[in-house]
Amino acid sequence: MSSERALLFAISPKMKLDKIFLKTNSRFSQELTAWAGDLNLLVDEFSEKGEDALDGIDGLVIFSENQTEDKDLLDLREKFDGQQKPVHKIDINGTLMVGVSNLDLWIERNRCKKVLFVGSDSLVSNTNLERYLLSLK
């Protein structure tokens, strides 16, 4: 699958992203790549290597379950915080419509157009991830 895909994605008429970034070589990213392909959403690969790794990325969205995060995701969050870039966390076991609305508001308020989506590979087996992604279509 190509790392670049066709144009815009909208959770609501107000929320539009130009592109999402996904970490390479993860089951979570593979799941979101398939989802993004269904939406013709522009996707690019993210590699943490290099000091300019966060250049061109407006914000970070962390998918989690029950408010737990892997250490590598916490480290990535610290990098975004250090560059004063906005971070949003989604608990896929939380209330669905509240999570979708909060994401929409976060993107609008922070004017994010290019966002890195990350999550633990264990989320792929949680049925709430699919339910959440379906609600974002």
Describe the structure.
- With 137 residues, the chain is α/β, with parallel strands linked by helices.
- Helix content is 35%, strand content 24%.
- The chain has a single domain, classed as Rossmann fold (3-Layer(aba) Sandwich).
- It has four helices and seven strands; from the N terminus they run βββαββαβαβα.
- It has a five-stranded parallel sheet, sandwiched between helices.
- It is globular, with a radius of gyration of 14 Å.
- 26% of the residues are buried.
- The N terminus is likely disordered.
The number of E-state strands comes to 7
Helix fraction, binned, reads: 25-40%
Q: Please state how the strands of the largest beta sheet are arranged side by side.
A: 4-3-7-5-6
Q: What is the residue-mean pLDDT, rounded to a whole number? A: 83
Low-pLDDT windows of residues: 1-15
Main sheet specs = 5 strands, parallel
The total domain count is 1
What is the approximate shape? globular
Radius of gyration: 14 Å
Question: What is the CA-CA span between the terminal residues?
Answer: 20 Å
User: What would the CATH topology be?
Assistant: Rossmann fold
CATH class: Alpha Beta
Percent of sequence in beta strands? 15-25%
Please write the string of helix (H) and strand (E) elements: EEEHEEHEHEH
Fold topology:
Elements: E1 9-12, E2 15-17, E3 19-23, H1 27-38, E4 43-46, E5 59-64, H2 71-82, E6 87-91, H3 96-110, E7 114-119, H4 127-135
Parallel strand pairs: 3-4, 3-7, 5-6, 5-7
Antiparallel strand pairs: 1-2
